[in-house]
What we know:
The protein is α+β, with helices and mostly antiparallel strands. The protein has helices at residues 17-25, 37-41, 93-105, 124-131, 149-160, 190-196, 199-211, 223-237, 244-257, 302-316, 338-345, 364-376, and strands at residues 11-14, 46-54, 57-68, 75-79, 108-113, 118-123, 146-147, 164-165, 179-184, 214-218, 262-269, 272-282, 285-293, 321-326, 350-354, 358-361.
Amino acid sequence: MTSAPRPGPLSVRPISSSEHLDYIRSRASVSFLQTPAWATVKNEWRGESIGWFDGSTLVGAALVLHRQLPRVKRYLAYLPEGPDIDWTDPDLGRWLTPLAAHLKQQRAFGIRMGPPVVTRRWHAATIKQAIADPVLTTLSDVPADVRDDAALAVATALNGLGWKEIPTENGFSAGQPKFNFQIPLTDRSEADLLAGMNQQWRRNIKKATKAGVEVVRGARGDLAEFHQVYAETAERDHFTPRPLSYFERMWDALTAEEPDRLVLYLARHEGDLVAATTMVRVGQHAWYSYGASTTAKRDVRGSNAIQWQMMRDAMAAGATAYDMRGITETLDPDDPHVGLIQFKVGTGGEAVEYLGEWDLPLNRALHLGFTQYMKRR
């Protein structure tokens, strides 16, 4: 009896944006942070599309963002929520060793990536119960409803290849969140979605409809109005807002790639803008990316109405998941961040834990200096 032949080595080389985009279109979905357009949005980094080849066949792809160190022509190579490779391969070295070799040639002193690998899931009912339990203070304290041991084994493989997980604080690192909140859409109707929500969410959606809140899709020219409400939200919630130019660049880059890649939503009540959001979709995955609401007229529940419209549009477009993006992992009722998870849990979705972000130092001295610099920021 002969054993199956071992898979051959893979090579990594640059690919064009059009090759990259064609590959993404052949996939069920990849993160929108891994589209060629995202390099245009993040114009303070240098973007590069790369491909993994088995002979002449493209079998994986990634967007790499190169960030230069001050005064030195050395770079951090960052693959946000990527790369898009076969993470189930028991020999991840086939994929990651040629990646490191290619980026070392590009004068990278280190690589940072966020494998799009889900390790655990918690259903809404489990989280609601856990918030009410004074003994449980974080999601990690709560036994998961779904645990993927093969995904957890990827962490062991990465450690064996010299990668180190970046520590998070309350589920957040300097990059992308480790914990997200998602609403599964596969084989569900609008009635199913509504039935899965808690009473408060259903009541608020009904209240918005009764009050006459109208949700419409906006055009590029409406971004300025969106930004006014977004700036008001930033001031109220104490975060630093992005400039209008960022959203204009995001609109231009993403809609050039696919006309409906980015959609702007506006919720109005009697002509007044009360909430505004953006949704990004790549294949079968839709993300709620930015949201804003006014302090005035909060009682008409524009935020609930606009979310409900986005969920329905995502489902109509064939999405299998509506992603509400990051949450902290706190379940402590005294922590101000718990309100975010409570708002999202009301939709009846699930908390999802990713593998987190990982670093591979290629030049240990430069990487250590960079790490110390980031800690001081």
